[in-house]
Please model this.
Amino acid sequence: MTRVSSYLRLVSWMYLHPSVDVHSATRTQYLSLQMTLCYPLSY
Model:
């Protein structure tokens, strides 16, 4: 549950700070985190 909460927190943070999306590094980390959490959530 901690992983999901942190994931939701990151998503909300990204929406609150759209300027962060400009950085490709942050975008890559966000995509990698989403892909990593996509598998355990599917089960």
Observations:
- Residues 2-42 form one domain.
- The chain has one domain: 2-42.
- DSSP finds two helices and no strands in the chain.
- The longest helix spans residues 24-42.
